[in-house]
Amino acid sequence: MAIKKFDSINVVPMIDIMLVLLVIVLTTATFIAKGVIPLELPQGKSAAEYSPKEKIRISVSKKGEIYLGDQAVDKEALSERLAGKDRQLPVYLSCDKAARYDAFVEVLDRLKALGYGHINIVTTK
């Protein structure tokens, strides 16, 4: 009886396991990131922590998309939704640092036109 020479490793089972693990990781990663607007905030040295219970959160994404809370809105819908809210509520405006400046200014203009005076710009410290 001749002894077979072992000169290669069968990597197919290892590839199968790695693909299954990749699917599991990607699936759980999408569940974790669901409901979060990805923004890369600019840094500010004078950032203060203040978070009242009632507030209005507005976000501008890198692509210029506007979010009121967690819902995407266009510029006209933003004005309509803000018109019915209390003007004394603080507004927290988050804008991605790679976003176009004109989208940020447009949101500020709409807030000022509606009479909001407590506008806070969210940054990282």
TrEMBL record:
Gene3D superfamilies on file: 3.30.420.270
Gene Ontology molecular-function annotations: transmembrane transporter activity
Gene Ontology cellular component list: plasma membrane
Transport is among the record's keywords: yes
Superkingdom: Bacteria
Pfam families, A to Z: ExbD (PF02472)
Main location: membrane
PANTHER family noted in UniProt: EXBD MEMBRANE COMPONENT OF PMF-DRIVEN MACROMOLECULE IMPORT SYSTEM, TOL-PAL SYSTEM PROTEIN TOLR
Protein name: Biopolymer transport protein ExbD/TolR
Source species: Nitratifractor salsuginis (strain DSM 16511 / JCM 12458 / E9I37-1)
